[in-house]
């Protein structure tokens, strides 16, 4: 890749790289640091075919200012960074997007592709396939644009630390016109994908996004440990689905007042754990679920296949008519 702008820190004993100001770039941007990268109080736009931002840190990458109180608890000010075709972020540490952080990649078949050795925490907004204005309004521009986040822990939304010890629930937002994949993979039970109470994770979230004519997409929440969803997850293009897979090393899937909406199929799998759904609803054309320790769910679906391979029970609460395609419970009750 030919870079129009390169910001690089070479002194490993320094503070790393800090970017701010107002940028308008025609061409690709590269940011490299042997320590941390902080992108704060910045408004950036980008033009040019096949251009993007490539951000690499041996430490953490922070979009917007934050004071870490605990996982998912951040105090923040803003940044708006727009990429034309790709927004690639790699950190040996963690990647944080503060509550007023707005990041987007605008073009068709574009990608926000992030990998961290620690956690990825999204309290702000990440959009792929559209651009945002200063008020945070999205204009959808390109179909089949994806988001892929991989880390030890992937956290979207959570409580925000305020003044005098107060907290406000903040909903992180991830929207795309193609696949959204959130992956927590360290071969450890502590791996977590967490979607907070006010969070919103959607592919093709609006009629104007769907009108771009992209292919059927999937929202995937994948964890070697647990997946916890309090907020909304949706995949709205015709034939699009949701896949949640957890518990390879003993965790499970816990949907707390969660709403899952798919135009196609919802698939839930916890091969070494439990699937539970307390509040909210799962709405789709059909649903497949498999777990060891038991399944409990609220459904507004037309077809269900479910399997409990351990000693747990199967409990389904349904709205309307449903076809029980395949039901298998080894040691429990239905």
At a glance:
The protein is mainly beta. It is built from one helix and 35 strands. The protein has one helix at residues 207-210, and strands at 3-8, 17-26, 28-33, 37-47, 52-57, 61-63, 79-83, 86-91, 95-97, 101-105, 111-116, 119-122, 125-128, 130-132, 138-140, 146-151, 153-156, 158-161, 167-170, 173-176, 180-184, 192-195, 200-203, 218-223, 226-229, 232-235, 241-245, 253-262, 265-270, 275-283, 286-291, 295-300, 303-308, 314-318, 323-329.
Question: Which descriptors apply to this entry?
Answer:
35 strands, 14-stranded parallel beta barrel, single chain, 334 residues, mainly beta
Please state the CA-atom Rg, rounded to the nearest Å: 20 Å
- Give me the side-by-side strand order of the main sheet: 4-6-9-12-17-22-25-28-26-23-20-13-10-7
Which structural category fits the helices and strands? Answer: mainly beta
Largest pleated sheet:
14 strands, parallel, barrel
Number of helices: 1
Global shape: globular
Written description of the protein model:
- By secondary structure, the chain is mainly β.
- The chain is built from 1 helix and 35 strands.
- Strands 4-6-9-12-17-22-25-28-26-23-20-13-10-7 form a 14-stranded parallel β-barrel. It has a 13-stranded parallel β-sheet with strand order 1-3-5-8-11-16-21-24-27-29-31-33-35, with no helix packed on it.
- Strand 18 (about 160) and strand 19 form a beta hairpin.
- The termini are far apart.
Strand and helix map with partners:
Layout: E1 3-8, E2 17-26, E3 28-33, E4 37-47, E5 52-57, E6 61-63, E7 79-83, E8 86-91, E9 95-97, E10 101-105, E11 111-116, E12 119-122, E13 125-128, E14 130-132, E15 138-140, E16 146-151, E17 153-156, E18 158-161, E19 167-170, E20 173-176, E21 180-184, E22 192-195, E23 200-203, H1 207-210, E24 218-223, E25 226-229, E26 232-235, E27 241-245, E28 253-262, E29 265-270, E30 275-283, E31 286-291, E32 295-300, E33 303-308, E34 314-318, E35 323-329
